[in-house]
Amino acid sequence: MFNKILIANRGEIACRVIKTARKMGIQTVALYSDADKAALHVQMADEAVHIGPPPANQSYIVIDKVMDAIRQTGAQAVHPGYGFLSENPKFAQALEAEGVAFVGPPVKAIEAMGDKITSKKIAQEAGVSTVPGYMGLIEDADEAVKISNEIGYPVMIKASAGGGGKGMRIAWNDEEAREGFQSSKNEAASSFGDDRIFIEKFVTQPRHIEIQVLADAHGNCVYLNERECSIQRRNQKVVEEAPSPFLDEATRKAMGEQSVALAQAVGYTSAGTVEFIVDGDRNFYFLEMNTRLQVEHPVTELITGVDLVEQMIRVANGEPLSITQDDVKINGWAIENRLYAEDPYRNFLPSIGRLTRYRPPAEGELGAGIVRNDTGVYEGGEISMYYDPMIAKLCTWAPTRAEAIEVMRNALDSFEVEGIGHNLPFLSAVMDHERFTSGNMTTAFIAEEYPEGFEGVELGDADLRRIAAATAAMNRVAEIRRARISGRLDNHERHVGESWNVALQGQSYDVTIAADRDGSTVRFEDGAELRVSGDWTPGDQLATMDVDGAPLVLKVGKISGGFRIRSRGADLKVHVRTPRQAELARLMPEKLPPDTSKMLLCPMPGLIVKVDVEVGQEVQEGQALCTVEAMKMENILRAERKGVVSKINASAGDNLAVDEVIMEFE
Asked: Which secondary-structure segment (H or E) carries 469?
């Protein structure tokens, strides 16, 4: 077995590989750019080598720099993680020439399957059903528009060397095809150093289901069942689960056997994933093969008990697989939620900055299941603009899907992140959404259910009452502490009352509290009662409560006259007042936010790539105003209504903070 492995990656996947290598008794070498000097993967590794400036194309994907680090440390093998150089055949060739093991597939398999155009041709030759499209290279935007019309809209414009949602656009008309081609080409060039583009038919209402395969160099290959990855945003997976709630045993077997046959046809070894789109009749079509470890591999590990990273290392060491197809079972259900540094209230635009608070739920048993959190960050660390915005992958396992979802709900409510925008509220909303809980989702789920973006969650009366009862009991605890202030005048002891008014989400509840040593009974004016107990001390930012025998986890902040409560995707201002205070509060005028309707504000920290208009120009609704780049993604900002540009405050090359005014209108 290898003594030392270099990990040619960063962030959570580097940390993930280090954990398994440590378990196997293998030393690890981390790489880091200037931006990652204090990163978690650098702290965890046995050695670390500086590799250059923050941009990936000047550090992590420069093959010569990685090779120098290998020589410097004497690493015998390299695990590439995902992204960066993981599917670059030139990197695999360089390792082979150096006599260093690549923890991944052979060069020929990477070339055959790693390139989307080539892989589709091979799949067609092997008799695999594929989506209609144009497999040749496309020279310019005019040709892209012509091909799109021949295929028929909508079409998917893709980078041939793409992955992780980079370099992908859906076009529904000629204008979008023209714009999408150029943006995809630019993103592909900056992310992968390869700007080749192809176009295929975009199949509406599909499910995205993929098969995990594992092969060795001795002719053995198995499939480790499927993962459902249909909940996506901008072609980036957000929620994954294993197994799929949609597949039956016959379809699973057919997809698995086809995936194995395809892998064996190209002499594949190591872990790989064959992706399919599946229609409502369970017809499946080959999409692509990822010749690497997938981001969502933990859910497969949780239901099969197979450590994929360990198997990859053993295969790279020349060992045969220790399992056969008959050994692969499905044990329970696993769900993964990707926690991103994106602000869901700003249409999921990237958010960067320092993690002033980062407290994930404890890993291990929670309720009926298990919690696992794969991460590459820590409290006080910084989310950089140079890399993917993923903070962590929160995974839960339980014997059934319903139980796994419930464990995930409580884990999400327990996850504390402050300092940046993040998608925890959105993930909580998805876990409670009827289409998700029923398993009836497609890749259009987010676009269909949140067409105007995410604006938070409106809780039902039952949930509001539970929160009202809990916060009333918490407020009583806080009031008792405040009543015990030292230095007060004699005979001026403050009495904490039993009658309160709780106002939240536009609702108002008059309650009375009867407390005892074990908790409080909160009685509503309609006679309903809720029993509340739990673990909360004034100042705690997390309250683990029990309301009528059911757990309720609340993230707690202090506001004047009450609490800021976040739970189940809702962000609530909860005011707990005496009856007289509540009466007076109803007479207070409402403070309105400032009017920014005639301004274009920068929706996220980013770089102005270009400005498409000039002062005095009349713009129409939907017209492109400027392009902002953040976290390797180009975002075109468009006019929301007709107007005339009166002032432009930024130009190409400017770095702007969130909410800076880019331009103003008459």
From this structure: helix 461-483
More confident residue, 524 or 595: 524
Q: CB-based burial of residue 550 (10 Å sphere; 0-12 exposed, 13-18 middle, 19+ buried)?
A: exposed
Q: What is the pLDDT of residues 42-59, one digit of tens each?
A: 999 999 999 999 999 999
Identify the DSSP state of 484. Answer: T
Mind listing the pLDDT tens digit for each residue in 162-179?
Answer: 666 778 899 999 999 999
CB 138 within 8 A of CB 198: yes
Tokens (6 digits) for 198? 């192809």
Tokens of 16: 């993930």
Residue 88 tokens, joined: 């670059």
In the chain, the amino acid numbered 609 is: V
Alpha-carbon distance of 608 to 601, in angstroms, equals 12
Split at pLDDT 50, 70, 90, the class of 646 is very high
Which tens digit of pLDDT belongs to each residue from 540-559? 999 999 999 999 999 999 99
User: Residue 554 has what pLDDT?
Assistant: 96
How many CA atoms, within 13 angstroms, populate the side-chain half-sphere of residue 171? 31
Q: Look at the block and give the residue holding tokens 């683990």.
A: 544
Give the β-pairing of 270-278 and 342-343: unpaired
Q: Are 601 and 160 in contact (CB under 8 A)?
A: no
CA distances from 14 to 77, 157, 239, 313, 482 (A): 14, 30, 21, 14, 48
Give the largest Cα separation in the chain, rounded: 92
**Residue among 87, 288, 629, 634 flagged as catalytic:** 288
Angle at 92 between CA 89 and CA 93, to 5 degrees: 85
Write out the two tokens for 76.
Answer: 């015998």
Q: What is the token pair recorded at 45?
A: 């590794």
Q: How many CB atoms within 10 Å of residue 480?
A: 13
- Would you state the structure tokens that stand for residue 290, as one six-digit string? 């990822």
Distance CA 112, CA 121 (A): 9
Structure tokens at 524: 């509503």
Q: Tell me which residue of 95, 388, 106, 160 sits closest to 272, measured CA to CA.
A: 106
Using alpha carbons, list the distances in angstroms from residue 29 to 47, 79, 84, 311. 5, 10, 17, 19
Here the tokens at position 248 are 């039956």
Alpha carbon of residue 43 to chain centroid: 24
pLDDT at 485: 66
Interatomic CA distance for residues 621 and 634, integer angstroms: 20
pTM: 0.83
* Residue 13 neighbours by CB distance under 10 Å: 28
Tell me, yes or no, if 434 is annotated catalytic: no
- Split at pLDDT 50, 70, 90, the class of 306 is very high
Most confident of 363-367, 403-407, 419-423: 403-407
Contact 370, 364 (CB under 8 A): yes
User: Closest Cα partner for 468 from 414, 537, 367, 545?
Assistant: 545
Q: What are the angstrom distances between the C-alpha of 445 and each of 226, 237, 542?
A: 20, 12, 31
